[in-house]
Amino acid sequence: MDINETVLELKVEEQKLQEELSDWKSKIPSGNMGKWHRQVKVDSITDKLAEIQKQIHFHDSIYLSSEIYKQWNTL
User: Fold this and answer.
1) Consecutive H or E run containing 42
2) In this predicted model, what pLDDT tens digit does every residue of 23-38 receive, in sequence order?
């Protein structure tokens, strides 16, 4: 699998998680258990989103460094 394909899949997953996060943040909980459930879900999605963004940054930095190496190698 190419790095670009991996980043593309991660970005699609990131977009889905951001939509899910905005949905959960917009829900109005009823009672303390509803508030607790909403907060747990928001925290879980936020953690997943942070991990995916970290992976995207990692793959982007690998791609960028390989491009810099290719340019340096042609000099």
Assistant:
1) helix 31-74
2) 999 999 889 999 999 9
